[in-house]
Write a structure and sequence with these properties.
Radius of gyration: 16 Å
CATH architecture: 3-Layer(aba) Sandwich
Bound molecules: guanosine-5'-monophosphate
Structural class: alpha/beta
Number of helices: 6
Oligomer: single chain
Order of helices and strands: HEEHHEHEEEEHEHEEE
Largest sheet: 7 strands, mixed
Strand order of the largest sheet: 5-6-4-3-7-8-9
Distance between the termini: 11 Å
Number of strands: 11
Length: 188
């Protein structure tokens, strides 16, 4: 999407070799109008597929996922990042390695927010190594629900996330796909 690419060029900050900071409009301060436009575009892209719920991973995926769910007319569910295993039987959990923080967490979903008749769209802000999205896929599959696809705001196409998801039969839609960082700028 041109709108998102332009914003990344104007306000995105490249850190080191492979991190893009988008704190001014996605990750810290949130541009609500932009989030609505991105959510509407996601809904347009995935409409007509019988999606019953939009899932996202806390916390940066929540804003675009909220608008996606609103435009699809379905509920949104936030997958929680918990530090330790929850021994209750009422949750599904799977371990995920965090990309930006050097830790792992238990991606957690209460069993009463998913059923085997759900067809789920996963929304997140970034796709890097695909660990977060693959964790969401594992949780959904544990519950025997099906996956419509993964919608990502910003894909770093030089990292293996897309390949990892597509090799599991998951469709990926990215609104901005970064081919490389050159001289501190994103190249699409
Ligand atoms: P993955 O699990 O695909 O390796 O990484 C995706 C997660 O890591 C995203 O949910 C996002 O929070 C974070 N992430 C990965 N790369 C970046 C990046 O370049 N910038 C920011 N701000 N977050 C990133």
């Amino acid at each position: 999407m041109k709108l998102l690419e332009e914003r990344i060029l104007q306000e995105g900050i490249v850190l080191g070799q492979d991190i893009l900071k988008v704190d001014g409009f996605i990750n810290h301060q949130v541009d609500i109008e932009l989030m609505e436009a991105l959510g509407q575009d996601m809904a347009e892209h995935f409409k007509g597929q019988g999606i019953t719920k939009v899932f996202t991973i806390e916390s940066s995926g929540i804003a675009p996922a909220l608008f996606t769910a609103r435009y699809l007319g379905v509920p949104m569910v936030i997958l929680k990042k918990q530090i330790s295993k929850n021994l209750q039987t009422e949750v599904w959990q799977t371990e995920v390695a965090s990309y930006t923080k050097d830790v792992s967490y238990e991606l957690t979903l209460a069993k009463n927010y998913i059923s085997d008749t759900d067809h789920i769209l996963i929304i997140d802000d970034f796709l890097a190594n695909g660990e977060a999205a693959t964790g969401a896929v594992r949780l959904i599959r544990k519950a025997h629900a099906t996956i419509a696809g993964v919608g990502i705001l910003i894909e770093k196409a030089f990292q293996p996330g897309r390949t990892k998801l597509e090799s599991q039969g998951i469709t990926v839609y990215a609104q901005a796909s970064i081919r490389a960082f050159e001289d501190g700028r994103a190249v699409f």
